[in-house]
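Objective 1b. Sequence-to-structure analysis of Dephospho-CoA kinase.
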Amino acid sequence: MAKVIGLTGGIASGKSTVTAFLREQGYPVIDADAVVHDLQAKGGKLYQVLLAEFGEAILSADGSLDRAKLGQAVFADSKLRARLSELQDQIIRQELLTRRDALKQTVPVVFMDIPLLYEADYSGEVDEVWLVYVDRAQQLERLMNRNNLSVQDAENRLTAQLSLEEKRSQAQVVIDNSGAVEATLGQVAQLLEEMKDGRG
């Protein structure tokens, strides 16, 4: 039976670095953000739903979805955010679980990179959760630098997610990403070794 590991973190916690490393090691990773992008592409299932809900104000000149416009509207309004989540969650969940089940037929370990794993209640869909963790001050600083955001904008984005502290209390495995990248990837390599040994 294939093992399904949910990989999560917070915005700017370094999860994509871990995901890239897992792929380099030959592990399949279902990337929830990439799946959402596919579904939001012009003509995709989510594109149709969002267009019906928000109208053409969220489109760019070429008719594709303008994620920045949608993001601005949604981050500023918690009611709108809740409505959007409701609309998108079911479609995204269906697609993610379809991909997971297909992979489970062919490989022993499947990783699912889901930023909002706890918020969207995916913990029951995976066998264990690995959390990429940094403390809040570090997370805020990285987010401001990475996305060129003001403190307030960065704070708003962090507040929209469950805090890493809360996630930490629920995750089975915590990968500490507060130091050098090499140290983080060393922890992941160790976890992969233990997993192989455990199966042997």
